[in-house]
Each structure stands twice: as C-alpha cells, then as structure tokens.
Write a structure and sequence with these properties.
The complex is a heterodimer of chains A (399) and B (246). Chain A has 399 residues and is α/β, with parallel strands linked by helices. Chain A is built from 16 helices and 14 strands. By secondary structure, chain B is an alpha/beta fold. Chain B has one domain: TIM Barrel. At the A-B interface, strand 2, helix 1, helix 8 and strand 11 of A face helix 2, helix 4 and helix 6 of B.
Chain lengths: 399, 246
C-alpha cells in the first residue's frame, strides 16, 4: 500500500520551498487553508486513510499502471525506453490519483460541494468522476478557449453530472479559470472544497498534490528495479503546473545517478512570445496563492502562455519546481508545438500508443536528448490522446 | 466622526483624471484615498473593479505612472496604495517603501499578502512609517483575530462578507467586531459592498467605511464626461459621509 514518505524537500511550516510557495491569498481563505493543513497533517501518514485511497486506486483506477518496455522506439534510438503508462488509468491520465485523495479529504471535512479548475479538461473530468462516485456536488471552471478546443471533455464532465463554467476573462485559459475558481472559493469557503489539479496554489496544495502523485514514481522505481535490476539514467516528464513530473521524480530525486528532466511547453519557440516556459523565461513572482516563476512583464503583469496543449498552457509553475530549478536538482528543457506533434504521430505509429499532447512533449525529448545511446530511460506518459483527437484532426492530414 | 475611505483605480480612464478626481474627493468628505494599482489577475475583486483594472492596463498604464500620480496626490489627501502583491514585489519592497515614505504615502493594502507572508516586511514598513493595513475576514475566529490585529496600524480592514468586491452579500458582523474591539484600539473600517444605500447599515459598530465599486462603477459609465463623473463621485462621497455620521 502506498503511503507518502517524509522528504528532505518538504516545505517549511508555512509551505515555503526556499523562497517559493507560501500562502498568498485573501484573508477570507486563510482559515480554510489552515484547517486543510491541520487535516492533512493528521492523515498524511495515517494507514486508515491511505488504505481507503489504496482501495480506489487499485479497483477503481486500475493501479499500478504498467511500466512498458517500448521495444520499437528503443531499437530506433539505440537505448532502453520504458513508458510509465498513466494513460491507462481510469479517466485517461494521472489526474485521478490526486483527485481520489482530495475527494476523500473533502468528505472527511464534511464539505458537500467541490470546485475545480481545468485546462485540458483532464482534471475537470477526473474531479467530475470522483464527485459522481462520492456523491459530491461539482462545479468546474474552464477558460472559454479551452472549452472550445476540448469540447469532448466538456461533454464528459456534463455527462458525469458536473456544472461547467466557461470563463470569458483574460486569456480565457487555465490562468483565468483558476482566477474564477478562487473567486468562487472566497465566496463559498465555508462549505466548498477546492480540488486543485496540480502542485500549485497556496500551501498545503503543492505538498499534498505531490504526495498524492508520488505513487507514480514509487511504482516506477519498484518496476524498473524488478525489470532491469538498476535505476534509470534519466526520468522524463512534461510540465504544465508540474504534478505528473513531481509525482514521477519524487522517488528518484535523492538518487545522484538518476537525471530527472522536466519538459516545458516551447510553443512556437522561446524566441517568440508564444510559449509556456515559465521556468526558462519567467521570473519569481506571486500568482494564485504562491510565489513561483511566472511569465510576466517588467511591472509584474502576468502574460499569456501558449501551447498546443491546453494542459501546459499556464504562465506559472508549481513552487517546488521553482525551488528545484534554482537548486539544480532537476534539469528543465522545452519542446515546441511542432516537435510535440511529430512525437504524437511517432509514438502512435511506432508503439500503437496515442499520447496526450502534453505527454507528447516528454516523448519528443527522446529525440533531443544528447548521448542517448545505451541509456536506460523512463518517460511518463501522463495521459492518453483521446481528448486531443478533434484538435489533431485539424492539424494533421494523412491523405 | 466616522471615516470614509475611497478606492479608485489609478489611471482610469486617464492619468490626469485620477488627480482631478482624487483632489475633488478629498474636498467632498473622503478622509483617505486608496489608489488602486491595476493588476492583470485581481482575484479578490468582482467584475466592476476587474474591468477597470483591465482597461487601465490596456491603455498602457505603467507602475511608474502610479508612483508619479501618487506624488501629485499624497501631499493633499491622505493616500494609501491598494493592490495585489506581485507588482509591488517586482518593484522591490525595500525601494517601494522608501519611495512611499519620500512622497508621503501613508499605508499599503495588499489583499493577497496575509499576516503570515507579511511578517518578513514588517521592519521595512516600520522604518519607513508606512502602515501595512491588517485584514480581518468574517471567516476568522477569535484566536486568529487576536493574532491579526496585534500589530495593526492606522485602521483594520474588515471584509464585510466572504466574497469578492462589489457583490451584494451581507453577513452579521457583530461577533467579529466585538472580537476585534476586545483585542485592539485600532479603528475598524468595513469594506466590500458598501455604497450610498448600504453605508448606514454597514457602519454599525465600526469607525469607518471603505467604498470602491460604487465609485469605479461611475468611472466605467460611457455616457458621462469627466466633469460629470467627478461630480457624481463627489456627490456619492458626500452622501455616504453624511449617512455614516447620522
């Protein structure tokens, strides 16, 4: 059974990872965050709570997810590539790992209403799913632009009984969905639980969501040791807010021989103003309750991010990633829209696995990584590409 | 005499207008002025103030403009800066508080910098004689209120309801007010949802009111010229000032 372990990278009492993280929220929310923090301290290592999580992760989600040896691309690259198959989870991505645990926490706190923000819609679908399962009322905030490019996921959420708010302000993407979710939460903090979908937001969310996603890395570590009898040379994952990456890296970070590589959305290229590379091109600042790297202008106004993938289209990043960047614990690089789209086709045809656009960024990095020959590598396939079919159909022509 | 604090979005609709409006409000019963610093992601604000923020930024308002306008206003009306933390942080809190001291800005109101995160800047606020206004929300319990108001200066910003600015909610604040008053002598001003209709009721048991959306709503009117907007804002200010002191 998975139970998180204390990490040397745990934040301080007020949620700081170095200068990053913290709780930058209106006072109205502070009591709710302090209550959540207290509650999380009680259950973080509590066997009873985790055995309930374990039950759902096994029988409902289908964990452990396989670690699959991708023989065809391995041969092509002259390396040993393993894929961590989070795409095989119920609802099609890693998002459900986090949502199950937060849904159970909402129950424990006696909150009947749940809200969530969503970019690609995967977190919204996962939240709507768990609300159906646990009999919670669900409202999802989604940028109008994402509602249009992810219409299948919008329909799935509605089918599952959730109410979807299309957010029309600002860039109409994940950033603005999160603004409106926070506004709703400030208004309804007393009876509403906010299920944040990534390792971002005010403390304790970044630590909590990391713990909930770290089952990915724990399984992957056991699986690779069983199959190869050694640790991998590299572990690669894509980064929007950074939850699948931190979940995968958590159990490898303290091994000097393993290089963890996080891939940001390069969009049209970092030389343009259309990308999602908060770590590479941003500066420390405060947004959505946390101090982290942000895409912003000289005056601290937040700039719009861009990515082909709605899940990576965010001008910030989880604060723990900001900390790991500054401490050089993780290597960060980026992949453009075009490279990701090529990898989307490549993995589909070479292995018969259609990855999400987000995960295609991590896959694409296999072609960019220097000295790959002979290396043992795990790539996290954080989600499946079903949700991207409509968009892919517009972009790709096979006749 | 109960006090009236007025929030206006700086640089909206135009820079020169802000100075004219500020000075006129100062002559219409407004005791302190909150110069709002526009931000791209104002999560504690409702649609009225959010819209004014966006429009000011769209017109190219820069942070240095806010400083320049403050300089013209602060010597004539008691002035505070109200804004989200990131623009202040990017300027640098040390340099900003020195600047505030230099031009006579008396306080800062930062809705997303709660007590726990503000602590590291306390010395800088104190050295420069700038008050970091403490917030109390109706969701706070007595123990937390005690902690929040311990170092309060100038006034306490009591949030009238759990929600965002400018919405029409109302909550029974008397238990919170009693708790604040049992821990501090600092005056308590209530903000959020205060306008000429609600002012009298909202001021019960406290020492002043903070009014924002009611003024910004006037600024957003497209069928009024600048003179009409200033006159309307001043008449709202006079009316509120009178009602809270009846």
């Amino acid at each position: 059974m998975y139970i998180p372990s204390p990490s040397k990278f745990d934040p301080d009492e007020n949620g700081h990872f170095g200068i990053f993280g913290g709780r930058y929220v209106p006072e109205t929310l502070m009591p709710a965050l302090l209550e959540l923090d207290e509650e999380y301290k009680k259950i973080r290592f509590d066997k009873e709570f985790w055995s309930e999580v374990d039950y759902y992760l096994k029988d409902y989600v289908g964990r452990p997810s396989p670690l699959y040896y991708a023989a065809n691309i391995s041969k092509e690259l002259g390396a040993k590539i393993y894929l961590k198959r989070e795409d095989l989870n119920h609802t099609g991505a890693h998002k459900i790992n986090n949502v199950i645990a937060q849904g159970l926490m909402a129950k424990r706190l006696g909150k009947k209403k749940v809200i969530a923000e969503t970019g690609a819609g995967q977190h919204g679908v996962a939240t709507a799913t768990i609300c159906a399962l646990l009999d919670l009322e669900c409202e999802v905030f989604m940028g109008a632009k994402d509602v249009a490019r992810q219409e299948l996921n919008v329909f799935r959420m509605k089918l599952l009984g959730a109410k979807v708010h299309s957010v029309e302000s600002g860039s109409k993407t994940l950033k603005d969905a999160m603004n409106d979710a926070i506004r709703h939460w400030v208004t309804n903090a007393r009876d509403t639980f906010y299920i944040i979908g990534t390792v971002a937001g005010p403390h304790p969310y970044p630590m909590m969501v990391r713990d909930f996603q770290a089952i990915i890395g724990k399984e992957a570590r056991e699986q690779i040791l069983e199959k190869e009898n050694r640790l991998p040379d590299h572990v690669i994952a894509c980064i929007g807010g950074g939850s699948n990456a931190i979940g995968m890296f958590q159990h490898f970070l303290e091994d000097k021989e393993v290089g963890c590589i996080g891939i940001e959305a390069g969009g049209h290229g970092v030389g343009t103003d259309k990308h999602g590379c908060s770590l590479l091109m941003g500066r420390p600042g405060v947004l959505h309750g946390q101090m982290s790297y942000l895409l912003q202008d000289q005056d601290g106004q937040i700039q719009e991010a861009h990515s082909i993938s709605a899940g990576l289209d965010y001008p910030g990043i989880g604060p723990e990633h900001a900390f790991h960047k500054d401490s050089d614990n993780i290597t960060y690089d980026n992949i453009t829209d075009d490279e990701a789209l090529d990898a989307f086709v490549w993995l589909s045809r070479a292995e018969g696995i259609i990855p999400a656009f987000e995960s295609a960024h991590a896959i694409a990095y296999l072609k960019k990584l220097k000295d790959i020959e002979g290396k043992l590598i795990i790539v996290n396939v954080s989600g499946r590409g079903d949700k991207d079919m409509i968009q892919a159909k517009e972009l790709l022509h096979f006749d | 005499m109960k006090h009236l604090v007025a929030y206006i979005t700086t640089g909206f609709p135009e820079k020169a207008f802000t100075v004219d409006l500020a000075l006129a409000l100062g002559e219409s019963g407004v005791d302190s002025l909150e110069l709002g610093v526009p931000f791209s992601d104002p999560v504690a604000d409702g649609p009225v103030i959010e819209q004014a923020n966006f429009l000011a930024l769209e017109k190219g308002l820069r942070f240095r403009d806010v400083l320049e306008l403050s300089e013209q206003i602060a010597s004539k009306v008691d002035t505070l800066w109200m804004g989200y933390f990131n623009p202040f942080y990017q300027y640098g809190m040390d340099a900003l508080l020195k600047k505030a001291n230099e031009i006579g800005v008396s306080g800062m109101i930062i809705p997303d910098l709660p007590h726990e995160e503000a602590g590291v800047y306390k010395t800088q606020f104190d050295t420069n004689a700038v008050s970091n206004i403490s917030f109390v929300a109706p969701t706070d319990d007595d123990a937390r209120i005690k902690e929040l108001v311990r170092d309060s200066k100038k006034f306490i910003y009591l949030v009238a309801y759990a929600g965002i600015t400018g919405s029409g909610q109302s909550e029974d604040l008397q238990p919170v007010i009693t708790s604040i008053k049992s821990h501090t002598e600092t005056p308590v001003y209530v903000g959020f949802g205060v306008n000429e209709k609600t002012a009298k009721e909202k001021v019960a048991g406290v020492d002043g009111v903070i009014v924002g959306s009611a003024f910004v709503n006037v600024l957003l009117q497209e069928d009024m010229n600048y003179q009409q907007k200033i006159e309307k804002c001043c008449s709202i200010a006079r009316e509120i000032k009178q009602k809270i002191n009846e």
